[in-house]
Amino acid sequence: MELVINLEDLKKQPIFVTEYIVLKMINEGINPLDFNWGYGSSIDMELHLLEQNLWIKKVEEGYILRDKGRQLFEKKNSDINFDEFWDVFPSSTPSGRPLRASSKEWGGKPTRDYITCKKKYLSKITTVESHNKIVQIVKARVSSKDYEFMNNIETYINQEKWQQDVKYLTHQPIVGKTNEMS
Length: 182
Fold this sequence. Notes:
Layout: H1 7-11, H2 17-27, H3 43-52, E1 56-59, E2 62-65, H4 67-73, H5 82-88, E3 105-106, E4 109-110, H6 112-124, H7 128-143, H8 153-158, H9 162-165
Antiparallel strand pairs: 1-2, 3-4
Helix pairs in contact: 5-7
């Protein structure tokens, strides 16, 4: 079991190191009561103070983070790499119908398509976890070779089509389609 702590993140937090470690453990699904905190240390008191200050909540199974605690570990929108989404999204269908601009830039400046889509995507996707899942979904759809009727990138974002495309993560054949690659 490993607990990774970004020391630069830790410096920015409005809490003590021990509190941060306890919150990080709870966030990772680790029960802080399962560990020896050393002589003179009172983990019970730490947990009580974190609960009193609305960082955590005691539940039957142990402790969970409240909104305040979850926000501490959520990646911010600025950490989302839109270019990763752009790069995995196909520029055209197998028959050649365009799905997005073929390049992010034209004449050294970002394209209208790129700017518009980035703004819309970042307004909808607020966590790195959601972004990573969407990138996986698009990769899976493209790998399945079933993207002839895929929406263009702007419609895909506007209508959150990844919610329908999650089925491509299961690696099950689509009913009614034949595998053209076999």
